[in-house]
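Predict the 3D structure for this chain.
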Amino acid sequence: MIGPISFTDADIDKSVKDKDIGAYILSKGNNVANYVGRSDSSLKQRLKQHLQNGIYTQFWFETVTSALDAYYLECQWYHKYSPKDNENHPAIPPGSAWKCPVAGCPYST
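Done. Predicted structure below.
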């Protein structure tokens, strides 16, 4: 995992490549995971969408090589950090039958 990094447009551009996919953590400060998410197509673009909210000050991220790996990582972080700003368990892409990799989760195998 890379971070914490200041959650600014310039630092996103400096840290994340255009075609990167993966999972991320957003924080309002004090190194607390307030939101966990992922992008299956452009991590940079997804982070910049959150930037518009203006409520997060730091981020962490990890790149992966597949959308499935991004989903797995997002699920693992979601269960590990219990972020307060996530209203729901990470969603699977439409048409997929993926299961959460975390044992005991109602969405797991």
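Residues 12 and 106 are 34 Å apart (CA to CA).
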